[in-house]
Design a protein that fits this description.
By secondary structure, the protein is mainly α. It has ten helices and five strands; from the N terminus they run βααααβαβαββαααα. Helix 2 runs parallel beside helix 4 and helix 9 (183-228) packs antiparallel against helix 10. The protein is globular and about 80 Å long.
Length: 274
């Protein structure tokens, strides 16, 4: 396969794949990694505190932002590589298996971020949850041909099963492939896909609502824990405020746990229906 790309003048492409993780400077820290990016583009310059706050959104907090990357787990390195991509504020994201090595919490955060991303996203992934919740259009590469696939993941699985069945039976393939490619069959497939999307719309809406709720609770929890990370809060004069923050932290954690359980239930139901 070959082709030509003509980028728009103001296009900023963000590309994430496993080799981005492997190419991280193992002797650097998360702060130094983002600072290096900030220095290369005047439009992306920021203070160290802004960078630290930004890294907090990728779960790098406290002294962790000053530790060498070589001591990080695969998931932490993947998060940092994603942070590098996002820092450059691309309007086109190219993601190659972005959820590899990410834990459930970070996969959820990535899913929400992609749902809210205002640019274009091209994803190559085997992660059904990510694809089901972020992708509007599917494309297939089959026998050297690249084409839009008219349907969702469930439609693709049915098509693949039918194709494999026909491949195993050449005679059946000869008599059935023509029917599969007819205009009437394609129209019926489109109608079925549209009906399925409409049927699953309320479930997707509930999943999205719970994800938004989790994001708000996580932001609130991060703010509380940031305050608890300030040494001044442990002074005698702030004893009452400290008790209030600790109580609020427990309350928010409990609520977040409850919402996450609901989200998992709805998500499992949605994935089972696909």
């Amino acid at each position: 396969m070959a082709g030509e790309m003509i980028p728009a003048k103001k296009m900023r492409i963000g590309y994430f794949a496993q080799h981005q993780v492997d190419e991280l400077d193992q002797t650097a820290t998360p702060v130094a990694t983002i600072q290096a990016l900030a220095k290369t583009d005047p439009a992306l310059k920021a203070t160290e505190q802004v960078i630290r706050d930004y890294l907090g959104g990728f779960d790098f907090r406290g002294s962790r932002v000053d530790e060498c990357i070589e001591h990080f787990s695969g998931g932490e390195k993947a998060r940092l590589a994603l942070a590098k991509v996002a820092w450059e504020r691309p309007n086109l994201l190219l993601l190659d298996e972005p959820t590899n090595h990410l834990d459930l919490e970070m996969v959820h955060a990535l899913t929400v971020a992609l749902q809210e991303f205002e640019g274009a996203v091209v994803i190559v992934s085997h992660d059904r949850h990510l694809l089901a919740n972020t992708v509007d259009e599917f494309y297939s590469i089959h026998k050297g041909h690249f084409a839009e696939f008219d349907g969702d993941l469930a439609d693709y699985e049915r098509w693949l099963a039918r194709y494999n069945e026909l491949e195993a039976s050449p005679k059946a393939a000869e008599s059935n492939l023509g029917a599969d490619n007819s205009a009437a069959d394609k129209k019926a497939q489109r109608q079925q896909a549209a009906a399925r999307r409409e049927q699953l719309a309320p479930l997707r809406k509930q999943v999205k609502a719970l994800e938004n709720q989790m994001e708000k609770l996580q932001t609130r929890l991060d703010k509380i824990e940031s305050q608890l990370g300030d040494e001044a809060i442990y002074a005698e004069k702030n004893k009452a405020k400290l008790a209030e923050l600790v109580k609020e932290q427990g309350s928010v954690k409990a609520e977040l746990g409850s919402v996450e359980e609901q989200w998992l239930e709805y998500q499992e139901t949605l994935e089972a229906a696909l």
